[in-house]
Write a structure and sequence with these properties.
The complex is a heterodimer of chains A (536) and B (132). Chain A is an alpha/beta fold and 536 residues long. Helix content of chain A is 48%, strand content 8%. Chain A is globular. In chain B, 41% of the residues lie in helices and 19% in strands. In chain B, helix 1 crosses helix 5. The chains are: A alpha/beta (536), B alpha/beta (132). Chains A and B meet through helix 4 and helix 17 of A and helix 1 and helix 3 of B.
Chain lengths: 536, 132
Amino acid sequence: MSERDQTEPRPVFNESGLEIKPVYTAQDIEQTGGSDGIGNPGEFPFTRGIHNLMYRKRPWTMRQYAGFGTPEETNERFRYLIANGQTGLNVAFDLPTQVGLNSDDVLAQGEVGRVGMAVDTIEDFEIAFDGIDLDKITVSLTINGAAAILIAMYFAMAEKRGYDVRKLRGTAQNDILKEFIGRGTWIFPVEPSIKLVGDTILYCAEHAPLYSPVSVCGYHIRESGANPVQEMAYAFCIAKAYIDHVLQRGLKIDDFASRLSFNFDIHGNLFEQVAKFRAGRRLWARILKEQYHTQNPRSTWLRMIAGGGGGGLTIEQPENNIVRGAYYALISALSGTQTMALCSFDEAYTIPSEKAARISLRTMQVLIEEMGLCDTVDPLAGSYYVETLTNQMEEKIRAAMDEVDAQGGIVQAVAEGHIQSAVSKQAFENLRKLERGEVRKVGVNCYQMKEEDPQVEFHPFDEGICAEQVKCLDRVRSQRDNARAESVLQTVLADAKAGRNVMPAVIEAVKAYATVGEITSCLVEVFGRYDEPVRF
Amino acid sequence: MNSGKKTRILVAKPGLDGHDVGAKIVVRALMEAGFDVIYTGLRKSPEQIVRTACDEDVSVLGLSVLSGSHMPICRRIKDLLHEHGLSDILWLVGGNVPQKDHDELKSLGVDAVFAVGTPTQVMVDFIRERVS
């Protein structure tokens, strides 16, 4: 034996706190819960994937996040991405739209069209989706606080174009609880916000049964500082909060559970992420079966978008982010995702350039066309390491969920700011570990270089966008039937006051060209505004 | 730092940007370094921020912006600081601020721009050096 073999290797822990052994054997799988939970793809508990043939039948949907400026500019980027082989759209809205303000609101100054496309009325949706076949390209709306309004707009626009809303597919992010933890585009207080999510789920269950009204996001919770176990645990607690709310309002679990979807984050250790997804898929299936007694197998599916996260990318040596993105895409494919998105390499600086967005898309296409990632389902299954880690991650996620429940549940913990405080504390500790060199990041605390100005093409921002958008808004307001708009807004107000589902009235309102800001104001009048608890 | 009044710092999130990971990290780092730190929470207007800076009698104002709207926000804040007689406040801006905007921000009166990735110790040292 050489001297090197005799030295005890230093202990290694993954981000979720599990100690990683230098060598794994079959015994490790047995000692962590056995191999009974592995099963087959397409069969309960779906560790290996929700479909039996997965990518062999159809590759994952490629859905880059896109949108900026006016609806016209966004439409142009959408067409560019589709022409380059993208198979789904993921719409970015500007901040005024996300928090329910019109483009001419004083608080919207300087923000119109900046981080996403500006939307004031249904006309903006008609322009943004012009020429895009909504049967072929599924659309995901990254909207939360104002989700009820934007979903209504999407349905009304589709119907106007002759699509049958009952057959319409697509997703809205519409996960307000995570907005209170990270991302921050809340509008109303916690309880009425959940009620609005409930309204959209109930409405879709009856009128748009193929639409996914909610995509529960672990993604932003992880981006805010949570580790992979917390990411899954908090997302599942949040999903359960929506389920419980909707059950209380009279729906049966199998009326809607199959339409819930998830959005998770990828950065960090490859094996830990793959195990996280496999464990999460199994645990979610078990939760639905054990706690909610679903009869429909589809209700137990963890359908997800798993995207390469901005949190893993660095402002230093930005080209390295292309490499990171490729590994994140590989992790996503090895994890059995339904949909993939990648933060582009320039995203630490700017809205992705056309070239950067195309590189992200090509990264996924290389995996599909050249690397054999679609040939066989769940290729890491049976690995001593991955199966052991999957068992351990499942146990840890379950324990983290129990901890939240023991503290009074996720809704209370979020309303009081406890989760926010815990996550931000962890983000701080993560930074300290990076500063101390306990966590290594290439280009950041090792292999640094003195850098010239970054070779990044900055997204041009035209200050004139706001004026252009406000002009459109003024024109729509002057051309619409104001009496009708006023009357439908009164119905929104009355329905909100009476505690009725606001979706039918909101749909009528957007059809009458009521604006995002007007509808939001009606809801604020009844629900009030969220007052952010600041805790350290 | 051991004697007399602690330096008071206001960390603020102007505009509609919801990215508060960085702002909260900075708040913790400044608190750990012994400063008296007030954090506004999200979505504060320039008016609210400057009023708070005035009411709380802070000597340092730190803004965190990642949405790209730092220029219009800082132009407005400059005027408000002037109106409130706070032009001599130590004014810092952090976040996603491209190099090309640094000069204009400095000309508005911003004392330092701390781009994403700036070590928190650099901020602590800068504040200690400038506020004495």
